[in-house]
Design brief:
Residues 97-122 are annotated as: Disordered. This protein is mainly α. It has 5 helices and no strands. It has a domain at 21-91. It has helices spanning 21-29, 35-39, 44-55, 61-68, 73-91. Residues 3-12 have low confidence and may be disordered.
């Protein structure tokens, strides 16, 4: 029995992706509302692997969750075990936009110019 191992290299960053690069590009550029319609023709097991692949990358994390929403929980579990379970749960929650980068700490400002000198002291 020959076991094929998938590796990610600098030469081919899509080596683990279950879709050809052109199909992946069309899906990643699509409007979020049309993604589920685009992937409905892809077999569910392949869709589940695609959801896991995309979820594992920070820039396609949300797209992976959207595609996981088109898959059955058992198929996601077969594709990725505990990660598949988590992905299934995340895909069934209401969408919450990411909060990173939008939080400001109590209105304080950061200055790169150094401390301000109080003109009254001089």
């Amino acid at each position: 029995m020959v076991t094929k191992t998938l590796t990610l290299s600098f030469d081919d960053p899509t080596a683990e992706c279950p879709l050809p690069p052109d199909a992946l590009g069309r899906i990643s550029r699509a409007d979020p509302e049309t993604v589920s319609a685009m992937v409905c023709e892809i077999p569910e097991a392949t869709r589940a692997r695609l959801a896991v692949y995309l979820y594992g990358r920070s820039h396609t994390h949300e797209l992976g969750i959207r595609i996981a929403a088109t898959c059955d929980g058992a198929v996601l579990r077969r594709a990725a075990g505990l990660v598949g379970n988590t992905l299934y749960d995340l895909s069934r929650r209401p969408y919450a936009p990411p909060s990173y980068g939008s939080h400001r700490a109590s209105g304080s400002r950061i200055s790169l110019g150094g401390p301000r000198l109080d003109s009254r002291r001089a």
